[in-house]
Amino acid sequence: MKFSVEDCEIVELPIVHNENGNITVLENNINIPFDIKRVYYLYDVPMGAERGGHSHYQLQQYVVAASGSFNFILDDGVNKREVFLNHPNKALHIKPGIWREMKDFSSGSICLVLASMEYTEKDYIREYKDFLNYRKNG
């Protein structure tokens, strides 16, 4: 199945409010529709730097602005969509086969990524022309 940028949605994550601070809990197949196999985070991204610039054949991700803010540019080979993340109780669910780029990181931002697969280079599409070919021809 080929997903579009419209299939990548912002998901409201649950907040447990407390006078001493809030907590958000993420659990496999409860409020995340996949088993989390890998967690990583980006931080200390220099002003003006861009990240991403790739797609995945199978990987799904939940991306959260754990701190600060940044923009995602999503691309399905036909349509592009920009998504601004700036709150730790909202996740961007990125489906397989979507090209992603990240930019406009605020100072002190932390981008938390929950991934459905362990790292494997074979799942990456790193060249945009290869991505377009994949989207066109499968």
UniProtKB/TrEMBL annotation:
InterPro entries noted in UniProt: QdtA_cupin_dom, RmlC-like_jellyroll, RmlC_Cupin_sf
Residue span, Sugar 3,4-ketoisomerase QdtA cupin domain: 7-135
Name by which UniProt lists this protein: WxcM-like domain-containing protein
Organism, scientific name: Chryseobacterium caseinilyticum
